[in-house]
Structures are given as structure tokens and as C-alpha cells.
Amino acid sequence: MTTPLVAPFPDITGELGAIPGLRGRLEANAPMAPLSWFRTGGPAQVLFTPVDEDDLALFLANTPRELPLIVVGLGSNLLVRDGGVPGVVVRLGKGFGGITVELGHHVRAGAAAPDVKVARVAAEAGIDGLAFLRGIPGAIGGALRMNGGAYGGETADVLVSARALDRAGNRHELTAAAMGFTYRHCDAPEDFIFVEGLFSGRPGDPAEILARMNAITEARASSQPVNTRTGGSTFKNPPGAKAWELVDRAGGRGLRRGMAQVSEMHCNFLVNLGGATAADIEGLGEELRSRVRESAGIELEWEIRRIGLAA
Fold first, then answer.
1. pTM of this prediction?
2. What task does this protein carry out (predicted)?
3. pLDDT, tens digit (0-9, with 9 covering 90-100), for 142-159
4. Fewer beta carbons within 10 Å, N or C terminal of the chain?
């Protein structure tokens, strides 16, 4: 009988660190709570921070395919379960955060570049069309993977192409059409790790674009719990409905489980009041799904990404 894998996990960093030429940092049983905006959850068996794209490709090409591997970004829509994450968690850092302005009102951004920073660089360069990124609390990699959007815009509207690495370290260039974007989803293979995106805008006045971005900032601050331990929007909006309204009608506003609470300000946000476990947060979300299912006959779908093992 196989013994279940639980944290603290067996240390396999020695084996992985033996890959010739590998430059990135490998950490065994690395805390994941500091990497999630919820600030909760167990450790990663291995946390790998590659130096750059070549380093990541080398790592992928030399690790067993059966070894579980998950990629995380800024952790804004991430819930790490209390039992930790077996296998490897790849966290893209500074080597994937570049942003450059190119001819034709194009902006090229690495997967680790914060959406808000990309929006600002575009605005200051007089490139309109990317201001909506100011309203997404994440990085470009996440926007590519889930067609991130806010305030009337989404990634599908502005993407020209994306570059990704597969599980074997091979590089792939995908056109916007090949991404197969739908609402909060793309059809790119699950094992693709996005490393860069090229976006297209249109000529605009920097002052006007920045003013719109400031309006987005003010709108978020007045309607969302932006300075709390939260994971952003918890559920996707069902067709023809708004998740927050369904939760509100089902009596979810302010509902608590342990130290997790449904935000009083915005019912589609779950908040860690301090000391909440991932089980508290996920359990509260499942209770909301059950209430909405019973009251409205609608199945809410999680937008927050949940990874790892239960305690």
C-alpha cells in the first residue's frame, strides 16, 4: 500500500538540482502562503524560480513527465490548500517581467509583468486599448491563461500572439485565434506555460488614458475589498447573470466560516479576516455554491484557482 504524500514532503531538490547548467533557485517545502493574496495554505514540495526562459526550458526538458508541475504568478486569484502542493511549483520572477513598446502601437510583456504596470507603460507611450488591464489584480501570464478582463475589456480584444513552453521545454508561438478564447478561458493545452504576450493598441492621448485608469482605480476602491487578504472574484459570472447578485440573493453577504468571510462590500469576494485556513475559505465558497444552486438553480463555477491537497 502506498503511503499518502503529505507535507512536509520528501526533499527532491538534490535530484532536480543536478540538471547540468540549471541556474534557477530550488527550494524544498517552500512556504506558499506568502505567495498567495489569501496568505494561507501549505508548502510546495519544490518551489522553482527560473532565471529566464532558457533556464525554464532546460528544467522542463530534464524533469520527469510524471512529476506534477504547476505554475503560479502573483497569487492574486490563487488558493493553496492546507496540505500543500506535491511536485514542483514554478514561480516566474524578474526574468519574465520585461515590458517593451514596439512599432505599430504594440506592447510586448513577460508573463510575470503585473497587468497594472503593462497598462501604465502603454498609457505613457500613448497606446490606447490596454487601460482595462489596470482593473485586473494579476500578471500577464494569468491574463493569457484565463482571458483576463475588467471594465469592458478583455485579453482577447488586444492579444496579437503569445509564446509558451510545453512540458518538454519546447517553444510554441500562438496567434490570438489559436488561443481559443472564451469567457475567462483559453483552449491552449493545460501543460503550456505562457512566458510572453504581444498586445496591440491604438493611438491615444496619454493624459486621457491615465485619467481613465485613475477612474478604474477609484471604482475598484469604492466597490471591492482591494486592501484585504482576498483572491479577487471568486466565481465566474454565469450566462445572463452576475455572481455577486446570486450570492447576495442567497443570503451570502457577510457569511462567515471560521475566519473566512464573504465581503460585505462585494459578495463575489471572499476575505481572510486573519488566521483563516484554506479549508475555511474553500468551504465557505462551496457553501455559497450550494445556496445559489438551491435558490436559483444555477451552478456557480470557481474563478479562483485552487491547488494542492487538503490538510
1. 0.93
2. Cell wall formation.
3. 999 999 999 899 999 999
4. N
